[in-house]
Specification:
With about 190 residues, this protein is mostly helical. It contains six helices and four strands; from the N terminus they run βααββαααβα. It starts with a strand and ends with a helix.
């Protein structure tokens, strides 16, 4: 049924990550005349996270083979626009762990990186960015389905809700960490 399939395999992942890390280290060395710092480590963790996100959200991409008839699938069956339908289905059939916790967990680190790179810890900034990022995931998945004329991913409103929930949980975690740090600093004085 597949004509071709595009995947981010482990060897390709390692090569890409290594090249990105070399670039990060060289740029840091050029700008600061040192090879390694906390900043370099955070950039490397961010690069790793982005590659994992690409793998989880977009790949594999399957291209249909010659025997594939596009009329065999309906585009609308790979659009799920009823809020909480997938969540309810996953909870009822017991297959909720990967779908629900996975969609929340995959976006949990977004708030940490957003706070690190922007320096902003405002609820609306994190909420709007979470909505934008999640909508971009789903729009890209839809575009991949349309371009390949093959149902690679289900475009699901529940994914948006769960991804945004993950970003907001990350935001709450940052708030709690900052409060605990402030309490520890004050109590140590």
């Amino acid at each position: 049924m597949y004509g071709a399939s595009y995947e981010l395999t482990l060897p390709i992942f390692i090569i890409l990550f290594t090249l990105i890390c070399v670039f990060i280290i060289r740029k840091h060395h050029r700008d600061y005349h040192s090879h390694f710092s906390k900043q370099v480590l955070i950039h490397m963790v961010f690069a790793f996270y982005v590659l994992v996100m690409i793998k989880l959200v977009f790949l594999p991409i399957h291209m249909p083979g010659k025997s594939y008839n596009p009329a065999d699938w309906q585009h609308i069956s790979f659009l799920q626009m009823i809020p909480f339908a997938t969540i309810t289905q996953m909870l009822s059939n017991g297959n909720w762990f990967i779908q629900i916790l996975g969609n929340i967990g995959v976006c949990l680190p977004v708030s940490f990186f957003l706070y690190y790179y922007s320096g902003k810890l405002k609820l609306m900034t994190h909420l709007i960015f979470g909505i934008f990022l999640s909508m971009m995931f789903e729009l890209c998945q839809f575009a991949i389905n349309m371009i390949t004329n093959y149902p690679n991913r289900v475009v699901d409103i529940d994914d948006v809700l769960l991804n945004v929930s993950g970003v907001m949980l990350g935001y709450l975690a940052i708030i709690m960490i900052k409060r605990l740090y402030t309490i520890n600093v004050i109590s140590n004085k």
